[in-house]
């Protein structure tokens, strides 16, 4: 989804529905960003609320995302919506 100011795209959010054989579906927020000139104006909050609504309509029981721990503005923002959980992320080169 995108946020616009007139015709200008000022933000985007990408969410995927993960369906599981053993538990309810969940939503993974792959990306949420707002152009710098429009940050701290409620754009990201509105988009995240819309992602919540959309994911609920798709049958998701919860949402999750990953944020870099040194990205203080992102982690502070997400702390207003959810509780951080520690997990392991595995990366490999292809």
Q: Could you give a quick summary of the protein structure above?
A:
With 94 residues, the protein is of the alpha+beta class.
How is this fold's topology laid out?
Blueprint (H helix, E strand, L loop, with lengths): L1 E4 L2 E11 L7 E9 L8 H15 L4 E3 L7 H8 L15
Parallel strand pairs: 3-4
Antiparallel strand pairs: 1-2, 2-3
Describe this structure in words.
The structure is a single chain. The mean pLDDT is 94. The protein has one domain: Aminopeptidase, CATH 3.40.630.30. The protein has two helices and four strands, in the order E-E-E-H-E-H. Helix 1 links the parallel strand 3 and strand 4 (62-64). The protein has a four-stranded mixed sheet with strand order 1-2-3-4, covered by helices on one side. Helices cover 24% and strands 29% of the residues. By secondary structure, the chain is an alpha+beta fold.
CATH superfamily: Gcn5-related N-acetyltransferase (GNAT)
- The structural class is alpha+beta
CATH topology grouping = Aminopeptidase
Summarize model confidence as the mean pLDDT: 94
Helical content band: 10-25%
Strand-residue fraction? 25-35%
Side-by-side strand order of the widest sheet: 1-2-3-4
């Amino acid at each position: 989804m995108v946020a616009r100011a007139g015709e200008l795209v000022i933000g985007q959010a990408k969410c995927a529905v993960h369906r599981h054989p053993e538990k309810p579906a969940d939503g993974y927020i792959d990306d949420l960003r707002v152009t710098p000139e429009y940050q701290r104006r409620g754009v990201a909050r509105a988009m995240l609320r819309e992602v919540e609504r959309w994911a609920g309509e798709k049958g998701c029981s919860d949402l999750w995302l990953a944020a870099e721990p040194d990205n203080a503005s992102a982690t502070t923002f997400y702390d207003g919506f959810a509780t951080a959980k520690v997990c392991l992320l595995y990366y490999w080169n292809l």
